Amino acid sequence: FFLMIRRPPRSTQSRSSAASDVYKRQGWSRQGHENEMELFVTRFCLLKILTSDLETPIKLAEQFSQHKQSPLYNYIKFLSLAVKIQSQPSFVKLNQYYENILERDPNLFDIVQKIFERYFVVKQQQGGLFSGLLSLFES
Questions:
Q1: Helices 107-116 and 71-84 meet at what angle, rounded to 10?
Q2: In a 10 Å sphere around its CB, with 0-12 CB exposed, 13-18 middle and 19+ buried, how is residue 18 labelled?
Q3: pLDDT by residue (tens digit) across 27-37?
Q4: 3, 28, 106, 131: which one has the fewest Cβ atoms less than 10 Å from its Cβ?
Q5: CA dist., res. 54 & res. 59, Å (int)
């Protein structure tokens, strides 16, 4: 399953309308079930986090949560903030807390794992003289 994500048109003046543009212009918004929308938005936001865009997911989650409350929208906001402040313990706790909800789409775990590796594992490996020692003891 591959989800093609299109950007909102560049003519959009208001940042707050970006979520509604994405909602209206995506083919899946008309074809998917309404209860799956939050999964699509979550996947899109996780991919944005993976590409170092930490602001768009927060704005999209806030915009979509105005239309429908969802724990996944809270998860996106909190996860973006945890990555932004580089808090690995918060990142891990959030994923433990929301694990049952994330299980609705097993592909989300793969994206979250890549986010973790990008923002936390790589930084530890580049940490300094003794950072490589830790990896020796883990294996």
A1: 20
A2: middle
A3: 444 555 666 88
A4: 106
A5: 9
